[in-house]
Amino acid sequence: MNEQRRQVLQMLAEGKITADEAERLIDALEREQPESPTGAAPRPNRRPKYLRVVVVDNSGGDGPGLVNVRVPLQLLRAGVRLTSLIPPQALTRVNAKLNESGVPIDLTELKPQQLEELIEQLDEVTVDVDDHDTNVHVFCE
Amino acid sequence: MIPQLVTVRHRRPDGRWLRLYVPVLPVLLVLSPLLLLAVLGGLIACRVTRVSPVGALRGTGQLLRALPGTRIEVEDGQTAFLISVR
Hints:
The complex is a heterodimer of chains A (about 140) and B (about 90). Chain A has about 140 residues and is α+β, with helices and mostly antiparallel strands. Chain A has two domains: about 1-40, no CATH class; about 45-140, no CATH class. Chain A has helices at about 5-15, 20-30, 75-80, 90-100, 110-120; strands spanning about 50-55, 65-70, 125-130, 135-140. In chain A, a hairpin with a 7-residue loop joins strand 1 and strand 2 (about 65-70). Chain A starts with a helix and ends with a strand. Chain B is of the alpha+beta class and about 90 residues long. Chain B has one domain (about 5-85). Helix content of chain B is about 45%, strand content about 30%. Chain B has helices spanning about 25-30, 30-50, 55-65; strands spanning about 5-10, 15-25, 70-75, 80-85. A four-stranded antiparallel sheet of chain B has the order 2-1-4-3. The termini of chain B are close together. The interface between A and B is medium-sized, with 28 and 24 residues. Strand 2 of chain A pairs antiparallel with strand 3 (about 70-75) of chain B, so a sheet runs across the interface.
């Protein structure tokens, strides 16, 4: 156990912070120090496990607004695999409706393998949008 | 591993927190008769829509297994809502 984590647990034991705050601090420490303890060889290419979406909105007068979503990438993969269950006749109807709406996308051409590859490549994606009062941050961790 | 604990937290405008800890397995056991009906309904729906029931069950299982680690947190001024799956 490293020193910083021990300090967080000490503050929790002393009642200076809540369990929720301690969890957040430990999460933050793990993000900052993802490498293994001293002596061990650093692991290259540690695969991210979660997709994070953080939105901070300071425009409201009632205090800052925050949306913080953490979704396991495995959940995205499982969801993508479910799309292979959509029956062809349903896809045909969806295609027809998309065409009517002016979006000529043929969903039958979209294979589950391609969707899975898309999820795999999400590892590298980072989206940052900074406005005057609003920040949006999408990344994998 | 399916989710074991779902935590729901809600901070009211007066600053008080409402915390709800839902142990998934005991709740599933209590609701197992309803769950059985839901599975039967799902299988019938699969038949009607010509979706593979085995694939649907496998997909649902994969979704359930992937759920732990999910965390959704929304704060707006004094109000906050958090769902965490472990």
